[in-house]
Write a structure and sequence with these properties.
The complex is a heterodimer of chains A (199) and B (231).
Chain A (H helix, E strand, L loop, with lengths): L15 H4 L25 E9 L9 E6 L26 E5 L7 E7 L11 E8 L6 E7 L3 H6 L1 H4 L3 H4 L3 E4 L7 E3 L2 E2 L9 E2 L1
Parallel strand pairs in A: 1-8, 1-9, 6-7
Antiparallel strand pairs in A: 1-4, 2-3, 2-5, 5-6, 7-8
Chain B lengths: L21 H4 L6 E2 L4 H4 L30 E10 L9 E5 L25 E5 L5 E7 L4 E3 L5 E3 L2 E6 L8 E6 L26 E2 L10 E4 L2 E3 L10
Parallel strand pairs in B: 2-11, 2-12
Antiparallel strand pairs in B: 2-5, 3-4, 3-8, 6-7, 8-9, 10-11
The chains are: A mainly beta (199), B mainly beta (231).
Bound molecules: fe (ii) ion (FE2).
The site of fe (ii) ion has 3 residues of chain B, from strand 8.
Chain lengths: 199, 231
């Protein structure tokens, strides 16, 4: 029997105490937040910092961003990825989520590691889900790194994007900030509208 | 949307002008098709170890000095894929307003009372047959500012990961016979023929005598695209 998919609905403005309660100081444990690593995690520490802008160019204060990524060896912590050559880092879950409503500049911040190439063909990337009040369903995008030029040039997904829009998927290293920080702003609309994928 | 990975007969569009905030927030350019790779065919895994003892019981998980007010209900169902195969060990997260229609969230300005014994956040993990169950208080209707005299039908917000990142779903569960359906642009943002799937059904077998009524709500998640992408 074929069953119809349950339709998506907006996450609404009041997701915080259900999905990211600790970030917003609600008395319920968070399953995930922007801190995706601990002392034992293998790989190069990075910080991803960004904002979400609407079609009027205004900051979106009630979006929630989710990150799904491979570990430093390019392996996902999921049963469907059972490849032996890419080592598992068992303590690294690879999932983070953060709302944009807890700082004056409505930023999201993820402290994580740079993922390895998943299959040798794809460049290192983070898989990103964007949800907010005013979206009836979530959007998928990807984040690639500005200092992986050769890998990016060979990446099949990036290559499938019209050249003049690829830039919207590149996180740029901010050398003025301590540590290894990449900036990645998401534009829902307009000339710089972020590329969203039909996943 | 020929050959799209998404089922647009079941899913709402990004821009639905009756729901005003979609106009500046929904993407306007065509989505770029992607061939599903391991990045899409894997996803976050949270099992039973992620869930606390009272997490699935919102009638008890935030008590301070008594019981929450309102009508106790049990919400239960199966999480399955489009072939009706159960999705075991998958996380279901929920949040909702209280029986007066007020959210704990500090941005909620609705002038209805908070309940000191009710938070309205919960989570559980499906069992080996894809079954889940929550206990909670039936949420009230509440006004919002989309248009003059706008009210949301009673609903519970749900979030699921499913088997992989492509099955990610955030939705809302409604209650049978709500008179507000026809006026709600969020409910009606979903194509006719699909929006009815978001309405739970009253189920006497789920009720607990002398304690709570029961509602059944099955959740059908999409799976990976089986057929190759069309050009
Ligand atoms: Fe709501």
């Amino acid at each position: 029997m074929k069953r119809g998919q349950t339709p998506s609905q907006t996450v609404g403005p009041f997701f915080a105490y259900g999905l990211v309660p600790e970030q917003y100081n609600y008395p319920f444990a968070s399953l995930a937040d922007g801190e995706m690593v601990d002392d034992t995690t293998e790989g190069q520490r990075i910080r991803v910092l960004g904002h979400v802008y609407d079609g009027a160019g205004d900051l979106v204060p009630d979006a929630i961003i989710e990150i799904w990524q491979a570990n430093a060896h390019g392996r996902y912590n999921h049963p469907a990825d059972d490849r032996k050559d890419n080592l598992l880092d068992p303590d690294f879950k690879g999932f983070g989520r953060m709302g944009t409503g807890t700082t004056p500049d409505n930023r999201f911040v993820f402290d994580t590691i740079k993922p390895g190439s998943v299959d040798g063909a794809q460049a290192p990337h983070l898989n990103v889900v964007v949800l907010m009040r005013g979206m009836l369903l979530h959007a998928y995008t990807r984040l690639y790194f500005s200092d992986e030029e050769d890998a990016n040039a060979a990446d099949p997904v990036l290559s499938s994007v019209p050249e003049d829009r690829r830039e919207t998927l590149i996180a740029h290293r901010d050398v003025d900030l301590p540590g290894r920080v990449y900036r990645f702003d998401i534009h829902m609309q307009g000339e710089r509208e972020t590329v969203f994928f039909d996943v | 949307m020929m050959g799209s990975n998404r089922d647009w007969d079941s899913q709402p569009p990004f821009i639905h002008t009756d729901y005003k905030s979609t106009v500046l927030r929904g993407p306007t350019k065509p989505l770029i098709p992607i061939s599903q790779t391991l990045s899409e065919l894997t996803g976050p895994v949270y099992g039973h170890e992620a869930v606390g003892e009272l997490d699935a019981d919102m009638t008890r998980n935030a008590r301070v000095n008594g019981e929450p007010l309102g009508e106790r209900i049990i919400v239960a169902g199966r999480v399955v894929d489009e072939d009706d195969r159960p999705i075991p060990n998958t996380l279901v997260e929920v949040w909702q307003c209280n029986s007066s229609g007020r959210y704990v969230h500090e941005a909620d300005q609705h002038d209805a009372p908070l309940d000191p014994n009710f938070l309205g956040a919960g989570r559980c993990v499906t069992d080996e047959n894809g079954r889940y169950e929550f206990r909670t208080i039936k949420p009230g209707a509440y006004p919002w500012r989309n248009h003059p005299n706008a009210w949301r039908p009673n609903h519970i917000h749900l979030s699921l990961f499913g088997a992989s990142f492509v099955s990610r779903l955030v939705t809302q569960m409604y209650f049978p016979g709500d008179p507000l359906f026809e006026f709600d642009p969020i409910f009606n943002g979903v194509p006719q023929g699909a929006r009815e799937r978001m309405i739970s059904s009253f189920d006497l077998s789920l009720t607990e005598p002398e304690f709570a009524l029961g509602y059944n709500f099955d959740i059908v998640l999409r799976g990976p695209k089986a057929t190759p992408m069309e050009d």
